Amino acid sequence: MEKKKVHLLHKKAKETAEVFSNPARGYGEIFQVSQIIPLSETTAIVDFAKNTNKHAMTFFYWINGSGGYWQYYFPTYDHCVGMEKVREYLHKVEIHNFDKNGV
What we know:
Mean pLDDT: 95
Helix content: 25-40%
Strand content: 25-35%
Order of helices and strands: HEEEEH
Strand order of the largest sheet: 1-2-3-4
Number of strands: 4
Largest sheet: 4 strands, antiparallel
Low-confidence stretches: none
Number of domains: 1
Shape: elongated
Number of helices: 2
Structural class: alpha+beta
Distance between the termini: 32 Å
Radius of gyration: 17 Å
């Protein structure tokens, strides 16, 4: 992962912990970045330890527009199943497009 992306990922993870630790949310939970696990050049998991002795996991992904930035969501099992289907479909698209590259 590029140094710029690593730096911005650490910054965004810390900001995310602060947002979800906001007392105004009413849950009384404090989030702290426990671990950042790079998955690829443009994706990572951020594990948050909470003061309730629980953990929360986010999936971070890099967006290239506007100079590049990190976005995230808290995945569910439904997200995982859906992304498995995306992988299958992407493979079909790649096969379809392969011979259309003018070779």
